Amino acid sequence: MSRIALITGATSGIGRATAEAFADLEYRLILCGRRQDRLDELKTELSSKTDVTTLNFDVREFIDVDDAVRSLPEEWKAIDILVNNAGNAHGMSAIQDGDPNDWDQMIDGNVQGLLYVSKAVIPGMVDRKRGHVVNLSSIAGKETYANGAVYCASKAAVEALSTGMRLDLTQHGIKVTNVAPGAVKTEFSVVRFKGDTERADKIYQGFTPLSAEDIADAIVYAVTAPANVTIADLTILASAQAAAMTIHRK
Ligand code: 8X3
């Protein structure tokens, strides 16, 4: 039987590319996001390849997350793969200038949200004694850079959660993969810079950044590894990138 994958933040960027790659594998897809129109559009696009259903919730509201996952019909409940992709950067400034609302969005979305979806999905995996959790961290979870303290802290938390989940879940037959991308050209920087596309575009100038599809390829590698192999941690940088903020630009 085809595997069932639940992807958060599925309507854009890495989430969308992962949904498309999983559709090519004919995985049955539970696409999650906040924008029903975009979920519907993606469902229509991918339905020619595989079974697709959608769940509309904000990962930051545990009750909504839990209700949505519980509402899945019986034939969708046995989730094999959870891709904790939803998350974003909000603002980029020195700590003394940071906006607490931005901090809330990053901590609530990237950390609490990941936890809430995990809480709604992982107990079923434990009962079934199988599953694979893929957490989207970042190079920012491995190194902290100036003006990014809170975003980096939120991704450092994801790193710790991936390790902690692996410690707790391995004995239950569940794999955990931590994926840490570097500079990926998606809506990420536009969101980080609050719609300032000029500032966002500058991030990717003078080199070839990663694409969302590059990261989806890595996720496919992890989830298709043989049963005896856990891809624990993948750090993926653009070829011109030596570290988070060390990029060789032409
Ligand atoms: C996104 C990568 O380096 O902009 O998580 O923080 S970076």
Automatic annotation (TrEMBL):
InterPro entries: NAD(P)-bd_dom_sf, Sc_DH/Rdtase_CS, SDR_fam. SUPFAM superfamilies: NAD(P)-binding Rossmann-fold domains. It comes from the Bacteria. PROSITE patterns: ADH_SHORT. Pfam families: adh_short (PF00106). One of its GO terms (molecular function) is oxidoreductase activity, acting on the CH-OH group of donors, NAD or NADP as acceptor. Keywords: Oxidoreductase. Belongs to the short-chain dehydrogenases/reductases (SDR) family. This is SDR family NAD(P)-dependent oxidoreductase. The lineage of its organism: Bacteria, Pseudomonadati, Bacteroidota, Cytophagia, Cytophagales.
